[in-house]
Amino acid sequence: MFLDRILQDKKIEVAERSRRVALADLERLVAEAPPPRDFLGAIKGTGLAVIGEVKRGSPSRGPIRPDLDAASLAVQYQVGGCAAISVLTDAPHFLARPHDLERVRAATTVPVLRKDFLLDEYQIWESRAMGADAVLLIVAALQAGELAHLVRLAGELGMCPLVEVHSAEEVDIALDRGVRLVGVNNRDLRTFQVNLETTQRLIQQIPGNVAVVSESGIAGPREAALVRHWGADAILVGEALVSSADPAGLVRALSETGTGSSRGRRS
Question: Which of 146, 140, 70, 64 is nearest to 112 (CA)?
Answer without folding.
Answer: 70
